[in-house]
Amino acid sequence: MSLRIFHVGADKFVELQELPAALPDGGFLWIGCHQTAFETRLPDLQAALHRWAGGPLVDLHVSDLLNKSLPSHFDATSWYDLMVFRRVAAGAGTSPAAEPAPGSVRQALATVDTSAVGFAIFDRVLLTVHHATASTRNHFAQRLAELNGGADLRGGSRLPASPADLMLRMVNHMVDSFLDLRRLLTRQFGDLQRQLLDPKSRFADWHELLDARNTLNMLEDTCEDQHAAVSEWIDALDERPPAEAPAARHERDLLRVRSRDVLEHIERVLGHVRRLEESAEAAVQLHFSALGHRTNDIMRMLTVLTAIFLPLNLITGFFGMNFDALPLVHSGTGLWITVGLMGLLGVGGVAYFWRKRYLATH
After folding, report:
1. Are residues 259 and 339 in the same domain?
2. CB-count exposure of residue 162 (10 Å: 0-12, 13-18, 19+)
3. Are residues 348 and 239 in the same domain?
4. Could you tell me the end-to-end alpha-carbon distance of the chain, in angstroms, rounded to an integer?
5. Do the beta carbons of residue 25 and residue 54 sit within 8 Å?
6. Cβ pair 158, 150 in contact under 8 A
7. Which of 135, 180, 214, 334 is the most exposed place for a label (fewest CB within 10 A)?
8. Residue 116 bridge partners (DSSP)
9. Which domain holds residue 343?
10. Is residue 291 helix, strand or coil?
11. Is 128 helix (H, G, I), strand (E, B) or coil?
12. Taking each helix axis from N to C terminus, what angle separates 206-239 and 178-197, rounded to the nearest 10 degrees?
C-alpha cells in the first residue's frame, strides 16, 4: 500500500482505511505515504490537514517533501514543524554478516541507502513522506502493532504519546540503522587496508579507493546535515513557551531527552565515519611509506653491489689496457695473483658492508 493511515492512541494502534472527516477523540493520526502517493493524493491531504489542524502544508514545504535529493534540514511554522531526514543504512540486498570478497569496497559502498524521509509534525497529526521503499514506515507499523495494548514486555516501551514522539523514534531508528552499515564498512576497509599493506601485493585498485573515499565524504556530509537538523529541532523545542499543565511539561521534557539521545547517536555515527576516513588516509600513507622503504632497500642493495664491484672493475680495466709493460702481464702466476686479489677485495667488501648492516635483511 502506498498510503497508510493509522490512529495512535494511549493504548491502541489501529489502521484506518480512509482519511477521517475529523480527528479522533484521543491520540493522533499518522499518515505514512510514498512520494508518488503523496503527489497523487496531495489535494485530499491538504484539505484534510486544513480540517484537522487549521492550515495545510506550505507550497515550499510540499516541494521539499517531493525533493529526493534534499539534504536533512528542519523548518517550522506556527501550526506545524517540518523535518527532512536522510538515512544512512546498508541498501537492499546487502548482508552485513557476509564476509567481504577481495576488492569489494566499491560494491559495498554503492549499496548505501541515503534516501530521505519527510516529516510534517502537527499537534495531533504526523505526515511522513518516504522516497524509497518505505521500509521505515512498514517497520514502525509492525512495531507499534506489537505494542498495541500497552507496554512492551521486552523493553518497557509504550506507544508514542504525540506526533513529535513518533517522529523522534523513527529518526532514532534511521540513525541506528547505521550500525549494520558500520560493521560492513569496517570489514570492507579492513580488506582494503590488507591489500594496501601486503608486501607481496601490487595494489592497482586506485579507482576503487577513490570511490570509497568520495562515498565516505558523502556520508560525512549526510551526518553533518542530520546533526544540524536535529540541533535546530532541539533549539525550536527550547524556544517554545513553557507549558502550564504538568502532563504537557512532562511530555516536553521527554521530548528533550529523546531529542538529545538522537543527537548523541548522530554524533557517534559521525565520529565513526570520520574515523573510517582517517583510517583510509592512514592506510594510503602507510602504503606509500612501505613502498618508499622497499625502494630504499633496493637502492641500498644496488649501491652496495656497485661499491663491491667498483674496485674489481678498476682492476680488470687496468689490466685490460693495451700496453706491453704492465706488471704481471708476462708472468705465469699473474692471472692467479690478480684473481686472488679480486676475490679478496670482493670478500672484504661484502664483510665490511655486512658489518655495517647494509646487507641485513631487517
Report:
1. no
2. buried
3. no
4. 67
5. no
6. yes
7. 214
8. 86
9. 298-355
10. helix
11. strand
12. 150
Give the number of other CB atoms < 10 A from CB of residue 133. 13
- The CA R_g of the chain, rounded to the nearest whole Å, is 35
Cα–Cα distance measured from residue 329 to residue 96, given in angstroms and rounded to the nearest whole number: 79
Tell me the pLDDT tens digit for each residue of 38-92: 999 999 999 999 999 889 999 999 999 999 888 999 999 989 999 999 987 776 5
227 φ, ψ (degrees, to nearest 5): -60, -45
Residue 234 grid cell: 532541539
Across the chain, the runs of DSSP E, i.e. the strands, are: 3-8, 13-16, 28-34, 73-76, 81-86, 89-90, 112-113, 116-121, 125-130
Backbone angles phi, psi at 181, to 5 degrees: -65, -35
DSSP string, 303-355: HHHHHHHHHHHHHHHHHTSS-S--TTSS-TTHHHHHHHHHHHHHHHHHHHHHH
In whole angstroms, give the CA distance from residue 194 to residue 103. Answer: 11
Q: Which residue has the higher pLDDT, 213 or 46?
A: 46
pLDDT of 92-117, one tens digit each?
555 544 444 544 555 556 567 788 89
Domain count, the chain: 2
Same domain, residue pair 198 and 339: no
Residue type, 297: D
